[in-house]
Design goal:
mainly alpha; 6 strands
Length: 299
């Protein structure tokens, strides 16, 4: 079988003189059980704070500018419950996406003992990351922000201050979906509120002054429209990526497909969990990804 230049280069990676396990310090001891995953990145933390601020701003305008002053009690209650539920699920999904280990490979595991434990056979290849000194599983990529290799890394998202990978892709998809839904809901309510204010007296349709009401509604409209477009596109690309079982990085690099092809439904269940249930839409339901295969490091 003819090997491509990339495969010929990777084939030397299994040789001891290239892997150089003696250059890798032993991996750090694992932290206590239940240790929270959090990336200390200034830009990511700022983006995450901005995300929460924008959602809370929308919450403020929806409740205190549009719903509370409304004379229609049923309209206010129904829309208030729906909007608050979607906003709660969006922020919960954001927290899970941000605080869940996306699938980080143990740092510094390219030691002599670990390489020998793989029991490599002639022709088998392993990948070593020179940046974090780890033996990379198949389909793992190094993130310069997280400073780790991430299994099935799709991309690093500053808005959730984390990589989107094997373990947290479900929560990121739910985050984009719920943000898109509350943005659409807010736009619809802003439209109805403007019509109501044009038909009635502006001083009666809000507890704020007419100029303040207009400014608050326009800012919310702009925010909702912007995030509706952005998160809808992200949601669509993520669902397409899941269905085709090809991450964003793999699509960008046009990497050769070396993994078994599965149906779209099986790919969805692999991310959201088995079997299909309401848990797919819940950020509190953790999907079972199974135990790591020790042979995933070998090609």
């Amino acid at each position: 079988m003819m090997l491509s230049p990339a495969h010929r280069f990777r084939d030397i990676e299994r040789k001891p003189e290239y892997l150089r396990p003696e250059k890798c310090v032993p991996p750090p001891r694992p932290g206590p059980a239940g240790t929270m995953w959090f990336i200390r990145d200034g830009c990511g933390i700022a983006c995450a704070v901005v995300t929460w601020f924008l959602v809370l701003y929308a919450e403020f305008v929806v409740l205190f500018v549009m719903l509370v002053p409304s004379g229609d009690y049923a309209y206010s209650v129904v829309n208030g419950i729906v909007f608050n539920l979607l906003a709660f699920l969006a922020l919960a999904s954001h927290c899970r996406a941000m605080l869940t280990d996306p699938g980080a490979v143990p740092k510094g595991n390219a030691t002599k003992e670990f390489i020998e434990s793989l029991q490599l056979k002639p022709g088998q290849v392993v990948y070593k990351c020179p940046k974090c000194c780890s033996i990379k599983p198949d389909r793992a990529h190094h993130c310069s922000v997280c400073k780790r290799c991430i299994r099935k890394m799709d991309h690093h998202c500053p808005w959730v201050n984390n990589c989107v990978g094997e373990n947290n892709q479900k929560y990121f998809v739910l985050f984009t979906m719920y943000i898109a839904l509350i943005s659409l809901h807010a736009l619809i309510m802003v439209g109805f509120h403007f019509l109501h204010c044009f038909e009635e007296d502006w001083t009666k349709c809000s507890s704020f002054s007419p100029p303040a009401t207009v400014i608050l509604l326009i800012l919310l409209c702009f925010e909702a429209l912007l995030f509706l477009i952005f998160t809808s596109v992200m949601f669509g690309t993520q669902v397409h990526s899941i269905c085709t079982d090809e991450t964003g990085i793999e699509q960008l690099k046009k990497e050769e497909r070396r993994w078994a092809k599965k149906t779209k439904w099986m790919n969805m269940k692999a991310v959201f969990g088995h079997p299909f249930s309401l848990g797919w839409a819940s950020p509190f339901a953790t999907p079972d990804h199974g135990k790591a295969d020790p042979y995933q490091y070998v090609v």
